Amino acid sequence: MRIAFYAPLKSPDHPVPSGDRLMARQLLRALEKGGNEVTLASGLRSFHATPETVLPGLEETAQAERKRLSRLWEQDGPPDLWFCYHPYYKAPDLIGPDLCRRFRLPYVTAEASYSHRRNLGCWTRHQELLKEMVNLAGVNLYFTERDRLGLAQAVPGARLARIAPFIDASPFLERLSVPRQSRLVTVAMMRPGDKTGSYVALAEALALIADLDWSLAIVGDGPERTAVEALFSGFAPGRVEWFGQLSRKEVAEVLSGGSIFVWPGHGEAYGLAYLEAQAAGLPVVAERVAGVPEVVEHGRTGLLVPAGEPQAFADAVASLLADEPRRRLLAEAARRFVSEERSVTVMARRLSEALVPALEYPL
Question: Using one digit for the tens of pLDDT, what is the confidence trace for 285-311?
Answer without folding.
Answer: 999 998 999 999 999 999 999 999 999
